[in-house]
Design a protein that fits this description.
By secondary structure, this protein is mainly α. It is 79% helix and 0% strand.
């Protein structure tokens, strides 16, 4: 089964989401621990990056459908 070439970017983003969640959670936790961010801003940073990843995934899926 051959995967269409226009699916590669969306599939790449989808496969990188778990590692992105892990890294941004760790990085946010360290920034809060070191005192650079408050807990609220650490959570906002985490949620913003995750939402941005999903929006990018959907945007690539819609724009590269054809």
């Amino acid at each position: 089964m051959k995967i269409p070439s226009n699916w590669w970017s969306a599939m790449g983003i989808a496969m990188s989401i778990p590692s992105t969640i892990f890294v941004i959670a760790w990085f946010s936790m360290k920034l809060v621990e070191w005192g650079y961010l408050s807990k609220t801003w650490g959570v906002v940073l985490f949620i913003t990056v995750i939402i941005n990843s999903f929006v990018l995934l959907v945007w690539n899926g819609i724009n590269k459908k054809n």
